[in-house]
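>> received
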Amino acid sequence: MSKQAIKFGTDGWRGVIADDFTFDRVALVGDALEHYLQESGQGDKPLLIGYDRRFAAEAYAAHLANHLDSLGRAVIVHDEPCPTPVIAFGVLHHEAAGAVQLTASHNPFYYQGLKFIPYFAGPALPETTDRITALLEQLAGGFTPPPLRMKWDGATDNLREAYFTHLDTVVNAHSLASSGWRVLYNPMHGVGAGYVDGYLARAGMEVLTINSERDVYFGGGMPDPSPANLTPLATTLVEDDCQLLVGTDGDADRFGLVDPEGRYYGANHALPLLADYLVTYRKMQGDLVRTVATSHLLDDVAAEHSLKLIETAVGFKYVGAKLREGALIGGEESGGISVKGHIPEKDGILAAVLMLEMVATRGESLDAVYAELLKRYGPRDYIRIDQQLPAADKQRLLSRLAEYGGDKFAGKQIERRVTIDGFKFIFSDKSWVMLRASGTEPVVRIYIETTAPESFGKWRNQILDEVKKLLK
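>> returned
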């Protein structure tokens, strides 16, 4: 077995297939999870197991299920690849102890991962992942790998229809067909195929689906619904007479949208749009939640509707915790959104369907709806830059940011500082910049939002120059 310790992070454990991520190590994780479930009082409930479309995903799932079964754990395996939010929904549907999803989300094809979803159907909090990591360290020395068993003959289920029925209680499915739109859907060879398009077709909307077949190489790219991957399909939208492109990532918990003019809409656009829509048209109430690195347009929506705005550390686990407490909607800039009445887990299927419901209900294009939002709150432009830095430079930059006492940064007056997760400077014109170190890569992430898009390029360069100065 690999000498590198298994550590559970924000989205569980990920590793390179056949190098770090092996059948023996998956079984070891099963041992740790069983110990954790017994400790946490979940001994008599079943554990669900789902898997994505990556190489040998179903074999990893079967091997894990067989090992847990040998330990006395009741197991239910999804009978086909399924989205992470669907297996999370299954936790509540079956009143299960939790779920395991075999997925590496939007990572390159040579990765696989294992995510643990606790009994409340949302991302595990740090105290849980830290405990599982500690158990793995304790158990690794005396662990004897079980025989390889890549076929599961035990209990199975298919959650698709139950999930669709649940979605009917969260979205207004009847409004979808009223738009008369034709939607282009790109699951990027991931498990969203049959779910986004399946639900929309069930609701009476016409959908054209591309890249729906399983391809463990994901067409040679990454299954990430980013602007770089989706905007080139704008010409296909026009050619096929479609009004909107929907994309989801490898496990369908993240999303992106593109209109025929090539304009990209991600969580930074969708979160304030949907919050405003749910309050204004659905008459719903509750706190609005975003991570510290997400657009402040949501703050303006909260202020206009006299709602509380909650800012959390980066990671949907923190957003999910607030949704469990009754928040109306929560999200993060990297593509995750969920709402009241749904699971406290990010769901790209739900987000895409809600966006389509919104434009259908309003009877306008997505561009017109977003333009109206900016007219009310002022223009915005946002970018995330991943700055590659050696470990020593990364640490020096963080140390100097911690000591930074100036009243200006990159030529702008600092009005407020936020240190929830990294270092964030908020300026008097509502623009802001945040710097945060990646915990897993030699990268410092720089998030920038401006209220003056016309001078964004110049200001971005000033910020990068400021970072260079701090590194000297």
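>> The radius of gyration is 22 Å.
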